[in-house]
Prior knowledge:
4-stranded antiparallel β-sheet
Amino acid sequence: MKIYNTLSRKIEEFVPIKKGHLSFYACGPTVYDFAHIGHIRAYVFNDTIRRMFEYLGYSVRHVMNITDVGHLSDDGDSGEDKMEKGARKYGKTVWDLAQYYTDFFFMSMDRMNILRPTIVCKATDHIAEMIDIIKILIQKGNAYETKEAVYFDVSTFKTYGALSGQNMEEKMKAARKDVYEDPDKRHPSDFALWFKRVGKFHDHTMHWDSPWGDGFPGWHIECSAMSMKYLGKTIDIHTGGIDHIPVHHENEIAQSEAANGVLFVHYWMHYHFLQVEGEKMSKSLGNFFTIEDIQKRGIEPMAFRLLLLQSHYRQPMNFTWKALEATQEAYKKLKIEIAHLKSQKREGVNEKTSPFKDTFVKALENDLQTPQAVAVLFTMLKSDVSAEEKLTLVADFDKVLGLELLKDQEEEKIPPEIVDLAEKRKAAKQAKDYDLADMLRKQIEEKDMRLKIRQVDILLSPSKILNSKP
């Protein structure tokens, strides 16, 4: 298994901390607004990692956090708490807002057939663990207190910036001068571990007692505390978006390794952004879409999943409705072909299946090349192996792809008499007996209210299905 490690900036052979086991932490959502299709790309990526390792025989402990406090609007220390801002915007309490959007998030994940993490943990349930880490950092001289907050002193962590490749001087130049900064903050890159309930945060709704006064945690300390509690001081894989690299994940590394004195993460995996019609997704542009928006257009969630799998996670993806609609048609054809395979006489499985499986596994083991893995699926279905072999491989591949390819749907339950008439019509057309073919077509239309004649033609022409690339 080879994966691209953001820290080393190269593809590396994956070696687990414990043989046969994967410790895996995924940055979860900040639940202040609706989960959108960009978020879905992120969690399909995480889900595919989980499925892939389980497919390869690993025992996976997958932890994901829910950020329900402390994430400021600028991802640093100068903005406004996203939860508080969202609560005012939607006229809800902060607690109700968190629950509402957490529920919407998991509804979206369920519709996309994304497996629930082994452990889902909320930031607000782990305040004590965060306080314990901050105490250690202060004792070690890595953190200091001001009138407004407790900060991590980045100058005490010599490798700060290694993940992003940005040195301290560059960080200084990148610091914005137009935002408020705590006057007692030592360095622009120092980051808050704990905000006190003073100044602009005087009326912060969510707050807890601490050795430094009433307040609430910073965003970055949350992930360190929760990953440490459930996965230990060092973990195999940590994922997130490329936007997390220069700030959030850089800070996670600094505070975790300073507190524990050991390597925090062996492999960092980051996914690229999803754009909509070539633009950044935003409500102001009218291109902010959720899973419900996709379904309102008559698109199946699994068609969207198929579209996502056809882009490599480290490449930017441009979402268009035209591409999704084309993938919807390809997915329908795929399901019809599989339904047809189910209706055929079953034969024994032979050794022809192994080359397809080997190619599929190699694609996954090469830094999760899902576009190649999907291509193997379509190539296999175009091959001359038996129906039984194809169904066996479809079931096997779908353990990773998660496309629900064998899940029966009402419209796919084609009556045997319709299949029989369609076979006879195909033979009549091949014999150029067009009168008989036309008569059989009318019988099909009369008997079957669910499949149009075009779909029956597709059913009997796998090459048409599979030559139409999704």
